[in-house]
Amino acid sequence: MKIVTATLLALSLTLIGNVSAGPAATQKASVVPGQSLGGIALGPNGLEELKKLGKPYRIDRGMSQTHQVWKWFKPGGRFDTFFVHTVNNGATDAQPSDGVTIDLIRTTATRFKTAAGIAAGSTLEQIRKTFPDAAPVEGMPTILDDVKRGIAFEFSDAPSSQSICIAVMVHTPGQSNLANQQQVAEVLENGNTD
C-alpha cells in the first residue's frame, strides 16, 4: 500500500508540476532560426507572444528588460527549461512603443527541432552539417553561434565532434544575444514567481 500511495503522490506532483510550469503555446515543436522556437516568435509583438505561454515559473525584471523561465518537470526529478529575454519597445524605438520585443528564446527540451532535425541532444558533428557557420562565442567557449542565421547551441564543456548540445537558442539574425545555463539557473534561483 505504501508503494502505491508513494507512486500516486509522485505521479500527482509530476502532473501538477507539468500543468503549472509548462508553456501551453509550445505544442509546435519547430525551431526556425532567426524567427521562432516552439511557436513563439521573435520581434516587437512580445506581449502577444508571451500570452501564449502563460505565467512563467520565474521572472527577473531589470532595467527595460526581463528574463523569464518556464520549467517542465521530467521523471527522476529532472526538468527542461524554456527561456525568453525581452526588451521594452520604448527603449529600442520599436512599435508598439508600450510593448516588448522578444530577442532571445532558449530551450533544453529535445522535442523542439529545426527542419533538419537539429535539437538539444544533437551532437556537434550533426549541428556542423546543417550550421557550418556556427562559431565559438568569445568569452563563452561552450556556445557556438551562427550569428547571421540567428541560432546558437550550448554544450556542457568546450565541444568536440561527439559533444551533446544541451540547449538551442533562437535570436535576432545578425545580433548575438545569448543566455547560458548559468544565467538561466540564476533566474531560477533568484527570480520572482510574479
Task: Tell me about this structure.
- The protein is α+β, with helices and mostly antiparallel strands and 194 residues long.
- The protein has one domain.
- It is built from 5 helices and 11 strands; from the N terminus they run H-E-E-E-H-E-E-E-H-E-H-E-E-E-E-H.
- The chain is globular and about 45 Å long.
- The chain starts with a helix and ends with a helix.
- Residues 1-24 have low confidence and may be disordered.
Please state the overall shape, judged from the principal axes of the Cα atoms: globular
SS strand fraction: 25-35%
**Count of individual helical segments:** 5
Give the distance, in angstroms, between the N- and C-terminal Cα atoms.
39 Å
Main beta-sheet annotation: 8 strands, antiparallel
Q: What strand order characterises the main sheet?
A: 4-5-6-7-11-10-9-8
What is the number of strand segments? 11
Domain module tally: 1
Q: Can you give the mean pLDDT?
A: 86
Pattern of helices and strands: HEEEHEEEHEHEEEEH
What structural category arises from helix and sheet content? alpha+beta
- What percent of the residues sit in helical stretches (DSSP H or I)? 25-40%
What is the rounded Rg? 17 Å
- Model regions low in confidence, pLDDT < 50 over at least 5 residues: 1-24
